[in-house]
Amino acid sequence: MPDPGRMAVQGRGLQSEPARIKPNEASLLARHNPLIRRKRIMANVYGTNNADYLDMIKYGVSNDYVQGYDGNDTILGWSGNDTLDGWNGNDVLYGESGNDLLLGYYGTDTLYGGSGNDQLYGESGYDKLYGGEGDDTLSGGDTFDDLYGGMGKDQMTGGAGADWFFFETKDSGDIYAGQADTITDFKDEDQIWLKGSYSYAGSTSAPADGQYSIWQKDGNYVVTWNAANDTGFHDLIVKGDNPMGDISFY
């Protein structure tokens, strides 16, 4: 049995690893082993100064707080509405299911929201943010970042630096149905990337197949694209500078 104030935490290789428990809260602090697992507990989990792999195993349904601390960490939230905090280092965070909060903080981080209505904040450094399914909020933070909203009605803020916003064919919905994505702070140095190849159709709100347009509604710019052999239009609300000349294809 572990000493009072300690508990055994299952790690890689079926080993046990001591962890400190803070009074009055279910907190785990990994001391050496890079993998911490728990089942059906609410936990605060902290990594080490090394490159940690923190996996809040999929069988649990708790709302967890996980901090990677220093090092280049990989953190998986799985189920529940989790808060994943990469802190220092170049981290990779996976929210998976639930409405998660992902914080990259310092370093070059990659954040995957997964399913659910997630909030992704890159903060400092060049970050890549993938909202996934659901109505997500993405914020790049300092310097230049890449933002992928994914399916759902997403709100994206690039922040400082020349940011790139990526959209698959069906990532954004109809503005008249209230399903369009929004870029909140578009600057002339930013870039919008549309999946596929489109010709410019002018300021119409209904471009033909294989075309895109830029028009205005309610004081904002709207980018509309119509993929070939697709049904319906896909609209993007752009607040800020005119995106004319800042749209590319991939």
Q: From the helix content, strand content and strand pairing, which structural class follows?
A: mainly beta
Series of secondary-structure elements, N-terminal to C-terminal: EEEEEEEEEEEEEEEEEEEEEEEE
What is the CA-atom radius of gyration, in angstroms? 21 Å
Portion of residues within helices = under 10%
| Gap from first CA to last CA | 57 Å
Instruction: Tally the helices.
Output: 0
How much β-strand is present in the residues? 35-45%
Strand order, largest beta sheet: 1-2-3-4-6-8-10-12-14-16-18-23-22-21-20
- Overall 3D shape: globular
Mean pLDDT: 81
Count of DSSP strands: 24
Contiguous runs where pLDDT drops below 50 for at least 5 residues: 1-42, 54-60
Outline the biggest β-sheet. Answer: 15 strands, mixed
Features:
250 residues, mainly beta, 15-stranded mixed β-sheet, disordered N terminus
What do these coordinates show?
This is Calcium-binding protein. It is found in: Secreted. Its main location: secreted. With about 250 residues, the chain is mainly beta. It has a domain at about 5-160. The chain contains no helices and 24 strands. It has strands spanning about 5-10, 15-20, 25-30, 45, 55, 65, 75, 85, 90-95, 100-105, 110, 120, 130, 135-140, 145-150, 155, 165, 180-185, 190-195, 200, 210-215, 220-225, 235-240, 245-250. A 15-stranded mixed beta sheet has the order 1-2-3-4-6-8-10-12-14-16-18-23-22-21-20, with no helix packed on it. It has a nine-stranded parallel beta sheet with strand order 5-7-9-11-13-15-17-19-24, with no helix packed on it. A hairpin with a 7-residue loop joins strand 22 and strand 23. It is globular, with a radius of gyration of 21 Å. Residues about 1-40 and about 55-60 have low confidence and may be disordered.
